[in-house]
Amino acid sequence: MTKTISEAIVQSKFRNDYHKATVALFYVCNQVGGIHHAFFKNYNITLQQFNVLRILRGQQPNACNLLLIKERMMDKMSDVSRIVERLRIAGYVDRCLNENNRREVEIRISKNGLKLLAKIDQNIDVLETPLTQLTQKEAKELIKLLEKIIQ
To answer: How far apart are the C-alpha atoms of 37 and 48, rounded to whole Å?
Structure first.
């Protein structure tokens, strides 16, 4: 049985449609976030760690610095240095000082990090499951609407 947002959160009155849309957006984000959390837990990493690994893989063979990673992160509030350190301890990234600028740290994805991403890539389509309720046309419209919000 399909639920409306009002039914899901047991709230029928909203100040206006903008309020209802805001509540709906947060509700859906939390639902999708829960799916992502459970998925990445199977690989012993977080969504933010996955995001960093994908950024580093995309930069190969070049190294990244913390600023570049932070700029490209989906979650701008993330503590990038702590995330990178946890990935280093797990063996998924390598850190070294930049020979030209000793204050700058260069970060690269390791072979283990690449192996982990390859394993994750085999099942990544699971994360799209909630959106398969939409047609391709509806998905494109959703993207357009979300992009309009962030402009």
So the answer is: 10
